[in-house]
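user:
I keep going back and forth on a fold encoding question. Separate attempts, laid side by side, tell us more than any discussion would. Would you put together a sequence-and-structure record for a protein of your own picking? Write it directly below this note and I will take it from there.

assistant:
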Amino acid sequence: MLNKLLVKRILIIIALILIGLFVYFNLSAFMPVLLALLTAMIFEPFVKFLMRKFNIRKRLLSVSIVFTVFLIVSTFLIYITLTYLIESLIDWSRQIPGYINEIELFINDLIQTFDEFIAEFPQGPQIVRALDELTDNTINTALNWSTDFVAYLYEIIMAVPNMLIIGLVYLITLFLFSLDLPRLMDNFFNIFKSETADKLRYVFQRMAKVFLGWWKAQFIMSLGIFILTYLSLLYIAPGPALIVSFLVWLVDIIPLYVGPALILVPWGVVAMILGDVTMGVQLSVLAVILLAIRRIVEPKVLGDSIGLHALPTILSMYFGFVFFGVMGLILGPFVYMAIKSAKESGLFDIKWTENEKRDSPN
C-alpha cells in the first residue's frame, strides 16, 4: 500500500511538471488567460469586501463594480499616457526643421574649418579620402538603422489588431473568472481529499490576506513617491508638476519594476532633444533617486504588510529576480508566503509511520 501511494504521488508530480513545461513553452498563448485568472484572484478580496461591507447578496453586482473601476482607471491611465506622449512628439516634430537648419550650419562651419586645417598637411588629400569613406560607411549604417527602426514600427502597427483582440479576450475572461471564481475554487478543492482540501483552503485564505497586504504596501509607497515627486517637480517644472506627479503615482502603484522612470525618463529624453539639457538631466536623476528609494524601502514596508521580516522579503525578491527576471521581484515574496503557509497548514507533512502501521498485518 505504501509503494502504491508513493507511486501515485510521483505520477502526480510528473504530471504537474509536464503540464508546467507545456504551459511554459506555450506561455504566449496562455498568457491572457493566466493573467486574467491572476487578476481575478487579486480582485477577489475587493469583491468580498464590497459584498460584506454593503451587504450585497448578488455576486454579479460586486464583480461589476470592481471590474468597472478597473476599466475606468486603466482607460484613464492609458489615455493620459498616450496623450502626453503624442503631444510631446508633435511639439518635437514642429521644431525638427529648426534643428535641421542649426545642424546644417554647424556641419558647414565644421567642414570649412577642417578644410582650412587639413590644407596645411601634405597628406591632406589622402586624409580627406579616408574621411569620405568613413562618412559613407557612417551614412550607410545610419540608413540601415533607420530601415530597421521603420520595420520595427511597422511590426508594432501591424500587431495593434492582435493586441486589441488579446486585450478583449483578457477582459472578457477576467470578468467571467471573477464571476465564477468561488465555483472554480470549489471544483479545484473537490479534487483532493477533505483533509488536504482544508489545508489548501487555509493556504488560499492566507494568500488572500497577503494580496491585500501587498496592495496596502504598494499604496503607502506610491503615496510617498507622489509627495516626493510633486515637491521635486515644483522646482524642476512647476507647470505640469501636479498632473505628472499624479501620472507617476498611477504608474508606481501598478506592479512594474521601473515605476516612476516610465514617465520621468521619456520626459527627460524629450526635454534634452528639445534643447533643455538641464531639465532632462534633473528629471533623469529624479527617476534614479525615486527608483533607488523604492527598492530600499520596499522590502521593509512590504514585509510589514504581508507578515514577513525584511530579510526573507529581500532574499525572496532577489532570488525571484535571479531565476525569473523582473517579474520575480513581485512573485518572489508571494511564492515564499505560499510555501510558508503550506508548511504551517501541514500540507507538506507525509505521515509515513501511520501508513506503515495501517499497512502492517498486525
